[in-house]
């Protein structure tokens, strides 16, 4: 159970060094992605001017306030509350996010499924779990919104955050086929039999 | 007692912001109980982070969760209250819009087909406003529930049949909790509706999910089912965030309605660990805020 401090862009080698139950702290750029902008990117062929190669993409749509652009708020947005949304809705975008955009790390909550796990294994990627619903805390790790693309989709734009000591995040899925969610689901399936027996259903 | 719609509008605005920032005391106590009984080390860490977040939200005056949810208003009008019903509905909607604009809340509401976001947290039929009546003469109560999508997306209805008995209900609840896994931001409150029509059953499940912790179903059969299912779902080991552990749910809450002789409906709706709600009570003395 090692701790890693990563400043994206990261290499395939750096990502393959991550193992489930390790922890990660992110420094520097972190991109916010979401249902609407991934539908735009992968279903409608819309392009982004951001280069996501080697970067970390977090499932989020933040609360922001429009402000005059300044050194503190280069994109003209002040972050109010930045938190992480349920990843499972966006399961089918993991592979294109990695193969077409070069994303190496997916930050989310609640976990991803078998197809994503396979993409992490094949291409070299990992899923870093945030404790869902703890956005007030997460916001304290966000220094600024540096840039924004697909602004018309607000709040589901593509956000470029600058983060400091973002974490610790838990490596919940790695590039070696490890998934804490799959492990817990398999154990729960076994325990289901006992639970149903106690409820008088077996 | 005459109620000015402007008073309702201000309360509707205030309630949305309050609900997003301060967790009700029963949920905080619920965390205390889970922290004391959790045996899994990972789960202990997850719960500790959640408790820290509650403190950070309060000390930084920030939202607990970025998901401002679908705004829901439950209104109970005392029999001595005089108010124009249409004006009441308009006032709540305006208050909800004002909260979104004035506080810069993320509008989480879009048109279901065009997906266009009006940035008001409102749209056709939203916010849902439920009106009920009570015997309390000089009192109008408004409860506000911002229902996050992680938990709301995990809603199920099953029109079981009488031959399947109560077993169908128990099995359905267990399997819904398994299916939800970590997606609902557990520990959750699992709301279960039993009986009614399809729409009433779902509405019962929602009411159950947002009922305060420590309260019990008024129907003794429902209360018995709550105890049985609360133990059962925590035995599954899903744990907080679906990462394993004992704390899968704060509780299972059941609400019951009579049903048709040919029907045995069951619905499940979950509330995430940020089980937010706030209430305002308007009396001749003014507005009192609580949970």
From TrEMBL, chain A:
Keywords: Lyase. Residues 8-183 form the Fe-S hydro-lyase tartrate dehydratase beta-type catalytic domain. SUPFAM superfamilies: FumA C-terminal domain-like. Its EC number is 4.2.1.32. Transmembrane segments: none annotated. Pfam families: Fumerase_C (PF05683). InterPro entries: Fe-S_hydro-lyase_TtdB-typ_cat, Fe-S_hydroAse_TtdB_cat_sf. GO terms for molecular function: L(+)-tartrate dehydratase activity. The keyword Lyase applies. The keyword Transcription does not apply. It is an enzyme of class 4 (lyase). It catalyses: (2R,3R)-tartrate = oxaloacetate + H2O. Heterotetramer of two alpha and two beta subunits. Belongs to the class-I fumarase family. This is L(+)-tartrate dehydratase subunit beta.
TrEMBL record, chain B:
GO terms for molecular function: 4 iron, 4 sulfur cluster binding; L(+)-tartrate dehydratase activity; metal ion binding. InterPro entries: Class-I_Fumarase/Tartrate_DH, Fe-S_hydro-lyase_TtdA-typ_cat. Its EC number is 4.2.1.32. The keyword Iron applies. It comes from the Bacteria. Transmembrane segments: none annotated. Keywords: 4Fe-4S, Iron, Iron-sulfur, Lyase, Metal-binding. Residues 10-280 form the Fe-S hydro-lyase tartrate dehydratase alpha-type catalytic domain. It is an enzyme of class 4 (lyase). Belongs to the class-I fumarase family. This is L(+)-tartrate dehydratase subunit alpha. The lineage of its organism: Bacteria, Pseudomonadati, Pseudomonadota, Betaproteobacteria, Nitrosomonadales.
